[in-house]
Each structure stands twice: as C-alpha cells, then as structure tokens.
Design brief:
Layout lengths: L14 H20 L3 E2 L5 E3 H4 L4 H6 L3 E3 L10 H6 L2 H8 E5 L4 H10 L8 E10 L11 E10 L5 H17 L3 E7 H10 L6 H8 L2 H15 L4 H11 L5 H11 L4 H17 L7 E4 L13 E7 L8 E5 L14 E7 H11 L12 E3 L4 H16 L4 E3 L6 H10 L4 E4 L2 H6 L2 E5 L5 E4 L1 H8 L1
Length: 452
C-alpha cells in the first residue's frame, strides 16, 4: 500500500506549528481591531465570472477551477473534446473556482450587501486563498491572507493608517522590515512621457520583476512586448532612481512635469510620507519605483513590505483600487487595502526564532495518574486550575511514571503535578519543574499562583 501524500504547495501543521500560527493570527487580529476594523468571511469558492479578468492574464491562469457537479461533459460534443482547447473547455465544465485573494471577493461582498453596510466600510478578513502557482520556497498553492480594506473613502489618511498598521504588526513580531511605497499614477505618468501609454500594463508587469530577474532580463521583456529601444533607454534612470525619499519626490515632480497624472501620483506619495513623519514610525520607509505589483486593479498608492533579515519575497502588500467595485456594477466607490501573508510571516518568524515562549506553550501542568483513588482526588483539582486559567491535563491512564514523564517532555509541558497518598493526606500537590528538576510542595492556590 502506497504512503498517503498531500498536493504539492500545501502543508500539514503540527500542534506546535498551529500554536505559532495562532500567535500570528491573534497578533494581526488585535492590531486590525485596534484600528477599528470589523471581521467578515466569504466562501472558499466564488463564481468564475467573479474572479476571471480581475488579476490580469497571468493571474487568470493561476485560478483553481472546480468541475461542475454531476456529468460535467454531458453538454460537450466530440468535436469540442477532440479540439483539446483547455481554456475554452474550462469555461464549459467549470462555473466556480477557489478564491485567488480576499480583495475581489470583498468587492463582490460590498456590491451584494451595499444596502446593509454604511460607508466608509472598514473590514478585516483572515482566510485561506489558493493559486495554481509553481511551488517554491516561500510560495505555496494554499496559504492564508490577513486583509484590511476600507471602501467608500478617497482620503489618503486611509493609506497612512495602513502603513501604520504594517509598522505596528511587524514591530510586535520583532521583525525588521522595509515598507516600500509607489503610486500607479507615477507609473502611468512614466509610460506617458516615454510615449508608450498603451503599454502601461506590459511596463508595470516587467519592472515588477526587477528584484527577481535583474535589469537586463526586464529590458529584454520590455523589448519583447514591442516597446522601442529609445523608450526603454528613457526608462532606465527612472527605474533606478536613487536618493532620499524627498529627493526622489522632487526628481519625479521635475521628470513628470508634463504628465498631470504622474505629478498627482508624486504629490499623493508626498502627502502620505509627510503625515507619517508625525506618527512615530519605527520601520524604514522607501519610495521604490520598481514596485508595480502586477495586479491590474491598483490605481493609486502601492504598498509592499519586505523583511530585512531573511531572504524571502514580499510578506505584505496592497494599495488603492478605485475601479474594482465598478466591475460589479457599483461605480464611484474607492477602496484601499493591505494584505499580510501569514504563511510567509510564519516562515520568517521560524527562521529568526522570534516566537515568545508563552505563545507556543499549550499545556502548563500535567497531573500524573496513579490510579482510580488518585484520579477521584485530582479531577476537582484540575477543574479548579482550569477555572483559574491554567491549561491542565490529566494523564489518561495509570501508566508507569517513566512513560508519563516522557509524555510531558515530548509535549514540552513545563510542570508535572504529582498527587499520591501522602499528598492526598496533606492536601498538597508536589509540583515538579521539568526543566530544572526542582520540586515544591504546594497547596492548590499556591500551585496556581506559582504556575501563572
């Protein structure tokens, strides 16, 4: 019989790993709530009509499609089957797909529930998403996103708050990060001044890969998209812009002076940076013109967070998406959001060993089981310890002491409570520290206070 397995790009998580992941989710959730966001959930699967066309051509290819129920081939003729046109067949045999991110389902939610919510609407969502990507380090096919979005407000103060949220979350985690900022209007302005406005998507998709494939390969990709060498040459000093954030803003205002859109993008970035100066930011802030985030729906500010001490891709990102709800028939509603990749954050915290000890500890006290008489005595003791907030287990059978101690060791339980005949007579608990080996004789209240 062959060994069972799981699909590539997915993972099982042990109890210890889940304790770590819950520390991540709880920390992020606390910060989201601190800024006044409220939680919603949407289904794992959406209609493909909701998802298709929202992530660009590359994104559409990465959607996991779900076969229709029942005989999904019944409406197809032999000619269609023999044609082997996968994209066309997919539209006939699949009406639903697994969600690719949380932003598009959120936009769909807003449109469907527009009469039930008040604007601006601030929501957070912590759920898994799926992408048919090639699995590699830091990139999975199933992973959790933790999103905050605000819809129904054009104010750039929303972007300011989202950057603050990223700063607060990674400060709590103890991870040094660089928060990179750009603006899609700047990228549009650049395309405009080099005379290639109709190629804005090709340009942004290519330069977004600068960190991954290098400048030469980016230039090759630009040329392959039909962008003339003269325009590619004009792009170089803009893509590789150096200096402080203030110097970059001033240079952009000069370079883009003939593009009203480009200048507006530079002014929006300047506003966000100026407001953040008075907030006590602890993370590095950097304007990065190579930051394009290939998704088609960003229209204004773009935000990306990278860890400084670990080689891994983006661990958080987002931006302004003014036109998204318009796709679902609800025009004129601006939105902005940021997403935290819980799985990449999990890998970063593991590599840097940044989990607080109490965040990954589950059971605090294990009662040794000597038999029925002792069980009857320790059951109410364990109940009172749990009522006091001490996570407590009773070993389920009167096994050898060595086996029970090994169980405590393997599960990293810090204290073992020993209650035998002497302890019962004296109404005491012998509490053993599993690290130091030290033992104390305590009454129940003393035991609870000591452990807590």
């Amino acid at each position: 019989m062959s060994q069972p397995s799981i699909p590539k790009g997915t993972r099982d998580f042990s109890p210890e790993e889940m304790a770590k992941r819950n520390y991540i989710f709880d920390t992020i959730r606390e910060v989201f709530k601190l800024y006044g966001f409220r939680q919603i959930e949407t289904p794992a699967m959406e209609n493909l009509s909701t998802l298709m066309g929202k992530y660009g051509e590359e994104g559409d290819k990465l959607l996991f499609k779900i076969l229709n129920s029942g005989d999904y081939l019944k409406d197809l003729n032999n000619e269609e089957l023999l044609e082997r046109n996968s994209p066309r067949l997919a539209t006939r045999i699949s009406e639903k797909g697994l969600r690719y991110d949380l932003t598009v389902p959120f936009a769909r939610y807003v449109v469907m529930h527009r009469n039930e919510i008040s604007f601006p609407f601030r929501r957070y969502q912590i759920q898994p998403v799926w992408r048919a990507d090639r699995p590699q380090k830091g990139r999975y096919r199933e992973f959790f996103q933790c999103d905050v979005d605000i819809v129904g407000s054009d104010s750039l103060l929303n972007e300011v708050e989202l950057v603050q949220i990223a700063d607060e979350i990674f400060t709590r985690f103890g991870v040094r990060v660089s928060i990179k900022l750009n603006n899609r209007k700047i990228l549009s302005g650049i395309a405009e001044i080099i005379g290639e406005s109709d190629k804005i998507t090709d340009i942004t998709v290519a330069i977004d890969k600068l960190d991954k494939i290098g400048l030469d390969k980016v230039n090759e990709e630009l040329a392959s998209k039909g962008i003339p060498q003269k325009a590619i040459d004009q792009l170089q000093p803009i893509i590789l812009l150096q200096g402080t954030n203030e110097e970059k803003i001033n240079t952009l205002k000069t370079v883009l002076k003939d593009s009203e859109t480009g200048v507006k993008g530079a002014e929006e970035l300047e506003f966000i940076l100026n407001k953040l100066k008075v907030t006590g930011m602890r993370s590095d802030l950097e304007i990065d013109l190579t930051l394009a985030r290939g998704l088609n729906y960003y229209t204004g500010a773009i935000i990306e967070v990278k860890a400084l001490d670990v080689q891994i891709g983006s661990i958080s990102g987002g931006g302004r998406y003014d036109n998204l709800t318009g796709i679902f028939g609800m025009a004129g509603v601006s939105g902005v959001g940021i997403s935290f990749g819980a799985d990449r954050i999990f890998d970063v915290l593991n590599q840097l060993d940044l989990y607080p000890k109490d965040s990954i500890q589950n059971t605090q006290v294990l009662f040794v089981n000597f038999g029925e008489k002792e069980e009857a005595h320790i059951l109410p003791l364990a109940a009172k310890m749990r009522q006091a907030g001490v996570s407590t287990e009773i070993f389920p059978e009167a096994a050898k002491m060595k086996k029970q101690m090994s169980y405590a060791d393997s599960n990293k339980i810090p204290y073992v409570a020993i209650v035998g005949e002497n302890e019962i007579n004296e109404n005491k608990i012998t509490l053993k520290d599993m690290v130091s080996g030290e033992q104390k004789s305590l009454n129940l209240d003393e035991c609870i206070s000591f452990v807590k």
